[in-house]
Structure formats: structure tokens, C-alpha cells
């Protein structure tokens, strides 16, 4: 008797940027790369919940970012696994809505190549005083700031996961000394010294550049507050590629305005889009990008689908899934 194929349902949101949408031709290309696995699954692709309830009646796997969580156990009696098409999942925690026996996985690692490249650019921009130089340009001032090479400077990475690890590799290639802060405190091959979260106070005063790539959880909310910013050297700069609420932006803006930090680059905000009335728009010595640091329009979805198929293989073999969320950690 032929076994039932695994039903994967992909739920898209049309108002999200195309980089986050899985289209049929992209799925077909991924299926061609994983022919043997693709033959063992049945995949449906929906938009804006038009077919969501119908698909959930038989779905074993849900792939998406925004979807109804109310009574999901009743709506999806077969659901075993949800794959989130992003890395940070603060919008769905706590996971008390998750059907019994189901697990959640994330896109952690999919962002890494692009994130490492962006981090290298941001580090070089901070090191070369681009935030201050652009502020002077806006003000119509000829303000010459001479910088020193990045080689030999110290980068502190708060959150050495996939993105932070990619940034560490780029920083080492630039000749920097890399300090890392991660929950586990485990060593990383591109990090010269690793610290636990309780040792942040020892790390911040040593850094020329602080890079934040930690996920947002109850433990990391406002992790970099006024007190922590005051520990940084006045000549240091800060980059946030993680989540906005990890850093106290009000305190950061005040320090930038007073010239107590050399500059900052922010790629994440709360809310997004950033409201027009936000004082961040006119904060001096600050460069902002609209949450584009790690999402690659060419390879983000192909890499996402390769990860999904890899986990399909693991699921069918009864092996642990990659990037499985630990509910107590919230990532």
C-alpha cells in the first residue's frame, strides 16, 4: 500500500516584500534540486489566507511568517511542524498556542552570507566615521575627519549565532580582534574571546565597534540600555542588526547628539516602518537602513527552501530538525 505523502502548505502574505514570498516557480526550482524528497511531499501554496483553513485540514507542515494561531490545533489536526521564514520569532511567543506535539523551526543561517557582507560594510563605515561625515554633509559643513585603519581594532559582537558568526569571520578577515557574547559562552572559531551574557560589562569598554545581532527575548529586551552605552568608549560606534528593542534607542540618540559616541548604524526599528515623526530621522551621527541588512533578493527564498527540504529529510528519517525553537529560550 502506497504511503501518504507529507503535505506542506506555504502561506504567503501579499503585503510583505517579495523577498519573503515563496512563488510556484521558486518552489519548482527547489523541487528539481531535491527530486527524491519532492516526490514524497505534496505542496500547496496559498496567499492571504484564501485557502488557509482548507489546507490546514490535511497539512503536516506549515511554512510561513504570519498566520492565524487561534485554535490551530483544531484547524490543523495533522500539523507536526511549522517553519518560520525568518529568524526572530518574537511576534509568535509565547508558544502556548502551538498544537501539542508540534515543533517550530526558523530560518536561522539563511541570512548569514548577506548579513556578514552588510556587517563588514557597516564596520568599515563606523571605523571611517561615515555617520558623522554624512551628518556634516546634511548640514552643509566641510568637516574633515581623518580615520585610522580598521586592522587591529576590536569588534564586540553581542549575539554570536549564525549572523554574528558570519560577521566575526568578516571582521577577522579585516584584521580585527573579535570579542563575542553569547548565551552558551561556547567558543567560536572566528572569535578571539567569548563571554557569557553576565560579562557584558567587561566587553563593552574594550570595543571600538559594538555589533548587536542577538534575538529579542524577555532576557535580551533593553540589554543595551543607557548604563551599557555609558560603558562604551566615546570614540566607539554601535551597529544594530538584531532587533530594535534590544537597544535603548532614546538613550543612544541622546549620546549621539551629545557626541559621546562616534556614530551608529541601525537596520531594525519598532515599529516598522519607522514613523515620520520619529526623532531618529534627525539624530546626528546616525545612519539608518530600513531592515534590509540580511535579506538577499536573489538567494533568500532558494536557501529557505533548501533548508525546508533538508528538514523534510530529517523528519522522514526521524532525526532532529535543524533550527528547532526551544520555547524557554524563545528562539
Q: Your description of this structure?
A:
- This protein has 331 residues and is an alpha/beta fold.
- 29% of the residues lie in helices and 16% in strands.
- It is built from 11 helices and 12 strands.
- It has a 7-stranded parallel beta sheet with strand order 8-7-6-9-10-11-12, with helices on both faces. A 5-stranded parallel beta sheet has the order 2-1-3-4-5.
- Helix 9 links the parallel strand 9 and strand 10 (237-240).
- The two termini are 40 Å apart.
Keywords:
elongated; Rossmann fold; 7-stranded parallel β-sheet; 29% helix; single chain; 331 residues; alpha/beta
Radius of gyration: 22 Å
- CATH homology group of the largest domain: NAD(P)-binding Rossmann-like Domain
Oligomer: single chain
Total helical elements:
11
Count the domains: 2
Q: Please state how the strands of the largest beta sheet are arranged side by side.
A: 8-7-6-9-10-11-12
Q: Would you count the extended β strands for me?
A: 12
Q: Helices and strands, in N-to-C order?
A: EHHEHEHEEHHEHEEHEHEHEEH
Average pLDDT metric: 97
Which class of secondary structure composition applies to the elements? alpha/beta
As for the CATH topology of the largest domain, it is: Rossmann fold
> Low-confidence stretches at least 5 residues in length (pLDDT < 50)?
none
Instruction: Give the strand content.
Output: 15-25%
N-to-C span: 40 Å
- Second rung of CATH, namely the architecture of the largest domain: 3-Layer(aba) Sandwich
User: How would you characterize the largest beta sheet?
Assistant: 7 strands, parallel
Amino acid at each position: 500500500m502506497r504511503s501518504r505523502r507529507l503535505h506542506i502548505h506555504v502561506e504567503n502574505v501579499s503585503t510583505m516584500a517579495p523577498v519573503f514570498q515563496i512563488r510556484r516557480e521558486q518552489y519548482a526550482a527547489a523541487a528539481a534540486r531535491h527530486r527524491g524528497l519532492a516526490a514524497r511531499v505534496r505542496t500547496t501554496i496559498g496567499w492571504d489566507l484564501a485557502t488557509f483553513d482548507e489546507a490546514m485540514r490535511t497539512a503536516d507542515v506549515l511554512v510561513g511568517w504570519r498566520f492565524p494561531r487561534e485554535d490551530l490545533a483544531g484547524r490543523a489536526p495533522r500539523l507536526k511542524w511549522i517553519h518560520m521564514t525568518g529568524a526572530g520569532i518574537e511576534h509568535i511567543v509565547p508558544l502556548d498556542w502551538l498544537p501539542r506535539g508540534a515543533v517550530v523551526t526558523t530560518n536561522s543561517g539563511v541570512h548569514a552570507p548577506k548579513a556578514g557582507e552588510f556587517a563588514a560594510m557597516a564596520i568599515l563605515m563606523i571605523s571611517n566615521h561615515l555617520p558623522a561625515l554624512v551628518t556634516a554633509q546634511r548640514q552643509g559643513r566641510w568637516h574633515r575627519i581623518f580615520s585610522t585603519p580598521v586592522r587591529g581594532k576590536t569588534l564586540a559582537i553581542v549575539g554570536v549565532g549564525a549572523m554574528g558568526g558570519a560577521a566575526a569571520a568578516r571582521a577577522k578577515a579585516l584584521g580585527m580582534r573579535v570579542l563575542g557574547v553569547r548565551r552558551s559562552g561556547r567558543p567560536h572559531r572566528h572569535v578571539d574571546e567569548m563571554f557569557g551574557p553576565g560579562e557584558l560589562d567587561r566587553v563593552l569598554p574594550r570595543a571600538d565597534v559594538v555589533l548587536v545581532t542577538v534575538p529579542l527575548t524577555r532576557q535580551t529586551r533593553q540589554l543595551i540600555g543607557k548604563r551599557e552605552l555609558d560603558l562604551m568608549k566615546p570614540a566607539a560606534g554601535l551597529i544594530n542588526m538584531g532587533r530594535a528593542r534590544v537597544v535603548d534607542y532614546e538613550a543612544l540618540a541622546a549620546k549621539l547628539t551629545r557626541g559621546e559616541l562616534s556614530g551608529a548604524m541601525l537596520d531594525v526599528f519598532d515599529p516598522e516602518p519607522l514613523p515620520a515623526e520619529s526623532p531618529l530621522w534627525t539624530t546626528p551621527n546616525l545612519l539608518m537602513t530600513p531592515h534590509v541588512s540580511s535579506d538577499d533578493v536573489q538567494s533568500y527564498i532558494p536557501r529557505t527552501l533548501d533548508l525546508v527540504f533538508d528538514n523534510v529529510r530529517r523528519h522522514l528519517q526521524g532525526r532532529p530538525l535543524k533550527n528547532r525553537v526551544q520555547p524557554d529560550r524563545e528562539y
